[in-house]
Amino acid sequence: MRVVVQRVTQASVRVDSEIIGQISKGLLVLVGIEKADTEEDSEWLSKKICHLRIFDDEEGVMNKSLLEVDGNILVISQFTLHAKTRKGNRPSYITAAKPDISIPLYEDFVARLQKESGKKVETGKFGAEMQVSLVNDGPVTIVMDTKNKE
């Protein structure tokens, strides 16, 4: 699983011009799922995201986690995170998981984030054409991939 985590002051997602998910201070998480990903990847990422110390403490140092600042989470599925761009100009998504694999893992990931954070996690609509709006705070943007845990 690959994620792009952005610290935000606000974020929202629209489908068919309707806002279906929105948060104030917290994290926007774009998640891409590969064929080889498992629930172990989902568990590792959900814990890592909730405990990442990327929020400022009282001295302005990034030393607090989402849990410590009572932040929110918005998760958006994004298979394009697994784009292969080595050959030609048209990205290949051959390693991205098909819906029969990715939907259950996406739902597991969201459930684990909810359990770890103790809050409802806002989401987009899996597989839909979405418009995502955000105000990146910092800016702070972190990329993590479960294939690079070490």
TrEMBL record:
- SUPFAM superfamilies recorded for this chain? DTD-like
Q: Which domain of life is it from?
A: Bacteria
InterPro entries in alphabetical order: Daa-tRNA_deacyls_DTD, DTD-like_sf
Gene3D superfamilies, per the entry: D-tyrosyl-tRNA(Tyr) deacylase (3.50.80.10)
Q: What does this protein do?
A: An aminoacyl-tRNA editing enzyme that deacylates mischarged D-aminoacyl-tRNAs. Also deacylates mischarged glycyl-tRNA(Ala), protecting cells against glycine mischarging by AlaRS. Acts via tRNA-based rather than protein-based catalysis; rejects L-amino acids rather than detecting D-amino acids in the active site. By recycling D-aminoacyl-tRNA to D-amino acids and free tRNA molecules, this enzyme counteracts the toxicity associated with the formation of D-aminoacyl-tRNA entities in vivo and helps enforce protein L-homochirality.
User: Subunit arrangement?
Assistant: Homodimer.
| Record-given protein name | D-aminoacyl-tRNA deacylase
Q: Which organism is it from?
A: Labilibaculum manganireducens
Protein's gene: dtd
